């Protein structure tokens, strides 16, 4: 019985030791993870605008320039199309969209712009959330996405 317990302990140590002995440099990105930074400030702060993990692209919430929701959402979708292009994708590859609308703003302009962007009839799952505020006091709307590349695009 002691011999069996000894073998089990030896096996467990044999499997556990490599976990503790490997040095890990947190500044290195795993090869399957591809971040996209808009600026050196983003890179220095370790806040990528998007990250591709395998065939899935996660895009951080983006706000846009403009004095009203219509102008801001137009700018946001232009930036999102650019981000998708950086990964060789289009808005048709978007699987989920989360829209943050500053409380009190109308969602009609957002819904209209979405219809233009996803005019092909294939739109992603979407949540429109009313929030108390966004990062920038001037921001009235922000959009974040999750997109999925087809297997031949990975």
UniProtKB/TrEMBL annotation:
The keyword Signal applies. Residues 1-21 form the signal peptide. Keywords: Signal. It comes from the Bacteria. The keyword Signal applies. Pfam families: Ribonuc_L-PSP. This is RidA family protein. It comes from Pelagicoccus albus.
């Amino acid at each position: 019985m002691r011999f069996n317990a000894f073998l089990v302990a030896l096996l467990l140590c044999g499997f556990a030791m490599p976990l503790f002995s490997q040095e890990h440099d947190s500044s290195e990105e795993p090869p399957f993870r591809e971040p996209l930074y808009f600026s050196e400030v983003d890179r220095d702060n370790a806040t990528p605008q998007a990250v591709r993990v395998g065939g899935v692209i996660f895009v951080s919430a983006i706000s846009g320039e403009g004095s009203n929701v219509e102008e801001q959402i137009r700018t946001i979708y232009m930036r999102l199309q650019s981000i998708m292009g950086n990964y060789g994708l289009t808005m048709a590859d978007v699987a989920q969209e989360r829209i943050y609308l500053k409380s009190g703003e109308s969602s009609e302009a957002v819904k209209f712009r979405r219809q233009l962007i996803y005019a092909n009839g294939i739109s992603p799952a979407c949540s429109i959330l009313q929030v108390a505020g966004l990062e920038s006091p001037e921001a009235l709307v922000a959009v974040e996405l999750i997109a999925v590349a087809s297997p031949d695009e990975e």
